[in-house]
């Protein structure tokens, strides 16, 4: 359900360094939720993101495959993390909010 929604929402994808798009979206207050790949190597390159998400009160979730996350982001390379953002007035806002609530329930 989460990956299916990615084909239809605006994503900030992180392919190389943890200091780029997903981190920027979090720091700027644009991220609705963050998705990270559990098979990122080394996993330590992602470990600052859950802390930042908790600090910014943004839900996050790990999925098993960076290849699947890359496909969902519409790129041919594996993606280790992405932040889902939404534009005001977007028709997808209700779907994104539902996914956000589902992720929040996973964290409780």
Layout of secondary structure:
Layout: H1 2-6, E1 10-14, H2 21-27, E2 31-37, H3 48-56, E3 60-63, H4 66-73, E4 81-85, H5 93-107
Parallel strand pairs: 2-3
Antiparallel strand pairs: 1-4, 2-4
Describe this structure in words.
The protein has 108 residues and is an alpha+beta fold. It has one domain: 2-Layer Sandwich (60s Ribosomal Protein L30, Chain: A). A 4-stranded mixed beta sheet has the order 1-4-2-3, with helices on both faces. Helix 2 runs parallel beside helix 3. The protein is globular and about 35 Å long. Keywords: mRNA processing, mRNA splicing, Nucleus, Ribonucleoprotein, RNA-binding, Spliceosome. Its main location: nucleus. It comes from Geodia barretti.
């Amino acid at each position: 359900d989460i990956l299916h929604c990615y084909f239809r929402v605006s994503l900030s994808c992180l392919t190389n360094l943890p200091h780029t798009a997903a981190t920027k979206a979090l720091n700027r207050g644009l991220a609705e939720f963050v998705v990270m790949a559990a098979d990122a190597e080394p996993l330590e390159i992602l470990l600052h993101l859950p802390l930042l998400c908790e600090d910014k009160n943004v839900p996050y979730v790990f999925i098993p495959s960076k290849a699947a996350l890359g496909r969902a982001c519409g790129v041919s390379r594996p993606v280790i993390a992405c932040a889902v953002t939404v534009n005001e007035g977007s028709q997808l806002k209700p779907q994104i909010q539902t996914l956000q609530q589902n992720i929040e329930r996973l964290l409780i």
